[in-house]
């Protein structure tokens, strides 16, 4: 499990990435997530600098505003983070197909390792 400092750095990077991708200012994001308008910009700035990590409930509200899965904000692996965002946009039926394909890839990978 990553340290609190590592989690802070990951969260900060992902939050800023998602906010910029949503074309929101720090203040707009904070207000939409339910932070008082007078402290919204400062609080989001502290999150993005890694000075503070919000409680899970706030992380969930920020993710909802940014249209990303909450797990995206905490994911260390860049490829997995991108996959989470992409998968979240799929319909439930397509998510099932993606999962089945991922499971097939995992099985074929483990079969390949056994034959080597």
UniProtKB/TrEMBL annotation:
Stored InterPro entries? Cro/C1-type_HTH, Lambda_DNA-bd_dom_sf
Question: Which SMART domains does the record cross-reference, listed alphabetically?
Answer: HTH_XRE
The residues covered by the HTH cro/C1-type domain are: 15-73
UniProt protein name: Helix-turn-helix transcriptional regulator
